[in-house]
Design goal:
The protein has 304 residues and is an alpha+beta fold. Helix content is 23%, strand content 23%. The chain contains 6 helices and 16 strands. A 5-stranded antiparallel β-sheet has the order 6-7-12-10-11. It has a 4-stranded mixed β-sheet with strand order 1-2-5-3, covered by helices on one side. Strands 13-14-15 form a 3-stranded antiparallel β-sheet, with helices on one face. Strand 8 (131-132) and strand 9 (135-136) form a beta hairpin. The longest helix is centred in the last third of the chain and has 19 residues, at 272-290. It is globular, with a radius of gyration of 20 Å. The two termini are 28 Å apart. The relative contact order is 0.15. The mean pLDDT is 96. Bound molecules: uridine-diphosphate-2(N-acetylglucosaminyl) butyric acid.
């Protein structure tokens, strides 16, 4: 049964969609719900609405989008409550992951330090199980509160969530808030671990450039690739792109980062089309060279 929304939500026309790429089109309609009731009103207004977290793993096509774009960064939807003695963190979908990482390290709660250097909202991070070589957010998720596309509230316990590599199975839901359970640890130890991870990333990633982090998922090899890996092994897409000779390659306003092959960087006057053409070109080069078909990790919004 759809839950009737009692609240109206202001909708703005023709709005910029802020993303880390800093390219792409606009939203015909955008809303910034103040709380969970207004979020439900958004879903009622447009059941196909698109949720904008931090825009850190998002590429919007130059034509923009017609669906209602919903921002989750209002204070009531991005609040964080930390009960350190209990090891419990309750975070709104719009809370920023890097801030939460720092806060948990400071309070001696372990797990999130492994996600240092990943820009994301908590909702976005859980939806795509953000993470990398050091850990993934699934490791600490206890419970997720969401609404479905009829606006009905849904709660998923950890054992009901089908987390996998860069996926959660929660993609059809709209995450409202998340509960995390974190074990205690010495803050000094956590701080050193976080620093190590940040140092690794500042050496191996173009931090600070206009990019959406890793663009392609790390593929699992179906056959041995010399110098790369064995069948069944998940290997770095960046390494494959690098070995295919694509680092530093540019198409108009988009460039494969010379630092890390899986990071594409957009130049100030760049367009989403440049990034998309470069993605296709790189995908082809890796396919021709190694027989591995890379799949995008970045979420792409296109006008339908
Ligand atoms: N490598 C190259 N050339 C490249 C890129 C990588 O030779 O251009 C080599 C590296 O030297 C290293 C190996 O490939 O030996 C793995 O590289 P890296 O440690 O950078 O990790 P990755 O497998 O490319 C990345 C990200 C993930 C991201 C996934 C894709 C880390 C540290 N980095 O891994 O996360 O999600 O690929 O799913 O895990 C992040 O955590 O900030 C991040 C972007």
């Amino acid at each position: 049964m759809p839950v009737a929304a009692r609240t109206a939500v202001p909708v703005l026309r023709d709005q910029e969609i802020p993303t880390w790429f800093k390219v792409g089109g606009r939203a015909d309609r955008m809303a910034r719900p103040a709380d969970a009731d207004e979020l439900r009103a958004c879903v009622e207004l447009d059941p196909d609405c698109l949720i904008l977290g931090d825009g850190a793993n998002l590429l919007v096509d130059d034509e923009g989008v017609g669906e209602l774009v919903v921002r989750t960064d209002a204070p009531a939807l991005s609040a964080v409550r930390i009960d350190a003695p209990a090891g419990l963190v309750v975070a709104g979908a719009g809370a920023k992951l890097p801030r939460l990482v720092n806060e948990c390290v400071r309070r001696g709660l372990a797990g999130l330090e492994n996600l240092g250097g990943i820009p994301a909202s908590i909702g976005g991070a859980v939806r795509m199980n953000a993470g990398g070589a050091f850990g993934q957010i699934a490791d600490v998720v206890e419970r997720v509160h969401a609404v479905d596309r009829s606006g009905a509230p849904v709660t998923r316990e950890r054992d009901q969530i089908d987390f996998g590599y860069r996926r959660s199975g929660l993609e059809a839901l709209i995450i409202v808030g998340v509960e995390l359970r974190l074990p205690h640890a010495e803050p000094g130890v956590l701080r050193r671990r976080l620093l190590e991870i940040m140092e690794y990333k500042s050496r191996s990633q173009p931090l600070g450039a206009s990019s959406a982090g890793c663009l392609f998922k790390n593929p699992t090899l179906t056959r041995a690739v010399e110098g790369i890996g064995m069948p069944g092994q998940r290997v770095s897409a960046g390494l494959l792109i690098d070995r295919a000779g694509c680092k530093g390659l540019a198409i108009d306003g988009a460039e494969v980062s010379p630092v890390h092959g899986n990071f594409f960087v957009s130049k100030p006057a760049g367009r989403a089309a440049d990034v998309l053409r470069l993605m296709e070109h790189v995908r082809r080069r890796v396919l021709d060279r190694f027989g591995v078909d890379l799949e995008p990790e970045v979420v792409i919004w296109r006008r339908r």
